[in-house]
Amino acid sequence: TDSVVGYNGDVTGTPYISPDGHYLVSIDDVKGLMKIQIITVRGEIQDAFDIHTNLHISDVAFQASFTEAHQYNVFGSSTTQTDVLFVELSSGKVKMVKSLKEPLKPDEWPWNSKNRLIEGSGLFGQYLMTPSKESLFILDGRLNKLNCEITEVERGNTVIWVGEA
Predict the structure, then answer these.
(1) Quick one: which of 8, 47, 86, 164 has the fewest CB in 10 Å?
(2) How far is CA 80 from the centre of its chain?
(3) Which residues constitute the domain of residue 122?
(4) Which CATH number is 134's domain given?
(5) Which pLDDT tens digit goes with each residue over 3-37?
């Protein structure tokens, strides 16, 4: 549509849309809230569930579900902590991927507010990448756990996947 069809109530924060356009994920760092909403085929926004977190989400990445057809999961990296949040959007299941070392401090990354980004490996890829202060971490999105650490990469906060998945 080319016009505003309505407002999203009192939802605040940074909005992210799943690749299929069916989920709206809003991150409100002030309230410590991740709000998940469903977008219907008619374009209507319906509340699904909320997640209260003290992670201070820096960035999110969507990944196609490996257990359910036509569904997505979302991963959220933390501005201040060593964990990554995993949320299964269809069910609300939440899991933490732990011990990914300390992220860059926000003032050490002045280019934008995403001091710890998270990047998926493509539409059909199962891996994600997120940096810490001195390493890069490869996460296995299929198993929702750490796959490996690449050490001695300082301030590696700009990442790109290259090659075939």
Answers:
(1) 164
(2) 15
(3) 14-151
(4) 2.130.10.10
(5) 776 778 889 999 999 999 999 999 999 899 999 99
